[in-house]
Amino acid sequence: TDSRATVAATLAPDKVLIVYLSRTNNIKAIAEIIHKHVGGKLVALELVTPYPQDYRTTVEQVARENETGFLPALKTKIDSIQQYDVVFVGFPTWGMQLPPPVKSFLRQNDLSGKTVIPFNSNAGYGVGSSFQTVKELCPDSKILEGFTTKGGVERDGQYLVIKGQRADEVKREVKKWLQKLNVI
Ligand SMILES: Cc1cc2nc3c(=O)[nH]c(=O)nc-3n(C[C@H](O)[C@H](O)[C@H](O)COP(=O)(O)O)c2cc1C
Questions:
Q1: pLDDT by position in tens, the chain (length 184)
Q2: Could you give the CA distance from residue 178 to residue 184 in angstroms, rounded to a whole number?
Q3: What is the largest CA-CA distance in the chain?
Q4: Could you give the domains of the chain?
């Protein structure tokens, strides 16, 4: 697309990694919007042992994992992370924190010297400590201003909401943010 061609001059697409965790696909939708603008490699984080389907059980498991600092094993392996200069990291807010699998990802992959750009969606309670934790887990990276927007409310049976009109709105928000960061 045109926007992608324009971006090529700013960010070399082969230097961009977009990695994300998404359970009900809101973050996936945002990741795809970012990808349309900057290109690069788009990777969904998958777990060796996926979380349960049931929302409440998952909330309880995540709370325990956050308490104990448990880092779930990832099925997704990034080959040669060194090849990337810019890493977008996308995640929902879980228990007002960075989801454990994203903690696993940042622990297991050395992003020092790279530009790290977080993006988030949540049920309306904000990013919590998640952006701060990204900073703490990437002490030697350049962290740019993150993006956040309201996603679904799984508790109330509201799953993917970034579709239709809401997707158009989020597309505009994402574009504005990327322009502000000077990456497009
Ligand atoms: C285990 C779990 C915990 C959550 N905790 C929060 C929270 O603390 N604050 C909040 O605003 N939303 C919370 N949510 C809602 C998600 O952040 C929100 O639905 C988000 O848009 C989901 O993104 P996804 O569709 O990419 O999975 C939680 C969802 C799950 C599954």
A1: 445 444 444 689 999 999 999 999 999 999 999 999 999 999 999 999 999 999 999 999 999 999 999 999 999 999 899 999 999 999 999 999 999 999 999 999 999 999 999 999 999 999 999 999 999 999 999 999 999 999 999 999 999 999 999 999 999 999 999 999 999 9
A2: 6
A3: 47
A4: 2-180 (3.40.50.360)
Q: Would you say the CB of residue 100 lies under 6 angstroms from ligand 1? A: no
Take atom 6 of ligand 1 and give the residue whose Cα is closest: 94
Q: 101 CA distance to ligand 1 centroid (A)?
A: 14
92 lines ligand 1 (CB under 6 A): yes
Q: Residues 131, 125, 181, 84: is their CA dihedral positive or negative?
A: positive
Atom of ligand 1 nearest to the CA of 124: 11
